[in-house]
Design brief:
By secondary structure, the chain is α/β, with parallel strands linked by helices. The chain has two domains: about 170 residues, no CATH class; about 160 residues, 3-Layer(aba) Sandwich (Rossmann fold), CATH 3.40.50.2000. Helices cover about 40% and strands about 10% of the residues. It is built from 15 helices and ten strands. The protein has a six-stranded parallel sheet with strand order 7-6-5-8-9-10, sandwiched between helices. Helix 1 crosses helix 15, helix 9 packs parallel to helix 10 and helix 12 packs across helix 14. The longest helix has 18 residues. It starts with 7 loop residues before the first helix and ends with a helix.
Length: about 350
């Protein structure tokens, strides 16, 4: 994530309104990966059978795992402190769930992934029991978890950097043939392939810029999509370049297989970029009521028709742009969300 994206901004706002203890991670002291695996196995954090699935990612790295070890030590020293964990689905957070009941009651977790992801993680579900609380990004998600775990559940919205992801002056969106598609996680690349095949045939001047990580290449549909005319792939864009795309694109097409809330959606709203998005999971909870650009899952015809309605209706695009920005200012402010989260923790 860039400095203006993701839920890291939530921590920045929390640190402004509450005392946060900083933990310094000395790189020299971080154990090697092989040693770390053996330590995790020895203390029961992860079984030998599960070692094969122990993966390191940009979030779940050696530094983060070691940082958690230090954080738990602080939690044990200070019985009045609490630990708030973002990206609670990551394997690094599972390691702390083997703590005592008293310690677990002071751990609060934020979940990002939808129920369809969680359903494949049976062991993970049981680990959520007896925590101080679990924060989710939708009522849909809360309803799903309420019958499965015994931990208090809280709903917050996924915020966005409102000051940075801002629209053009007067929300003006000039006629353009630029369409963007941002992100790769839980994206329906096959739908995008079918849609672009039709769009480019009707209007050959259209240009599609896809911003995604290299993980997208694991999907066959994505490979095929890149072979279509006027499709351009961008990876590792700076925040400034991403903002430029949101501001200059006529439309942001976001075909999803599932989702709770994601950076691409809320950034697009805040920048006033009209988005056509699949009505899946809890997506509609992060959109204005009755939003025009919400499209039924797998409905290529609806995506196709609404794309051209937006491309050919200048006034409609600008009105949607203005509405999305207004919605973002009212509901997606990380500062307000951090206050809601902190109040829930203090009242628990």
């Amino acid at each position: 994530m860039g400095v203006h994206s993701g839920s890291d901004l939530l921590f920045e706002h929390l640190s402004k309104i509450n005392d946060v203890k900083n933990i310094y991670v000395n790189y020299i002291q971080i154990p090697k990966k092989g040693i770390l695996r053996r330590i995790l196995e020895k203390f029961g954090f992860i079984t030998r059978e599960n070692l094969w699935s122990f993966k390191l990612t940009s979030i779940n790295s050696i530094k983060e795992i070691y940082g958690f070890h230090l954080a738990i030590n602080e939690l044990l020293k200070d019985t009045l402190s609490v630990l708030f964990v973002s990206c609670g689905e990551e394997q690094l957070s599972r390691q702390i769930f083997h703590s005592s009941k008293n310690t677990k009651s002071r751990i609060f977790v934020l979940l990002h992934q939808p129920p369809t992801w969680i359903e494949n993680e049976v062991e993970f579900l049981s680990a959520l029991n007896d925590l101080g609380g679990v924060f989710v990004f939708s009522k849909h998600h809360k309803k799903y978890l309420s019958s499965i775990i015994n931990t208090p559940l809280y709903v917050i919205k996924h915020g966005v950097d409102l000051d940075y992801f801002s629209p053009k002056e007067n929300f003006e969106r000039y006629d353009t043939d630029l369409i963007v598609c941002v992100g790769s996680w839980l994206r329906n690349h096959q739908l995008m392939f079918d849609l672009w095949n039709r769009l480019i045939q009707k209007r050959p001047s259209l240009k599609l810029v896809i911003v995604a990580s290299k993980d997208a290449f694991k999907n066959d549909g994505f490979q095929s999509l890149l072979e279509l005319p006027n499709v351009f792939y961008r990876e590792g864009l700076s925040s400034d370049k991403l903002l430029e795309l949101y501001r200059n694109a006529a439309i942001h097409i976001l075909p999803l297989n599932d989702g709770v809330a994601n950076n691409a959606l809320v950034e697009s709203l805040s920048a006033g970029c009209p988005v056509l998005v699949s009505d899946v999971g809890a997506v509609r909870e992060h959109l204005p009521e009755g939003y025009y650009g919400l499209v039924q899952k797998y409905d290529v015809d609806a995506f196709f028709n609404k794309t051209f309605e937006l491309l050919d209706n200048h006034e409609l695009r600008n009105q949607i742009s203005s509405d999305l920005r207004r919605f973002s200012l009212s509901y997606l402010d990380w500062n307000q969300i951090s206050c809601q989260l902190l109040k829930a923790i203090k009242d628990s």
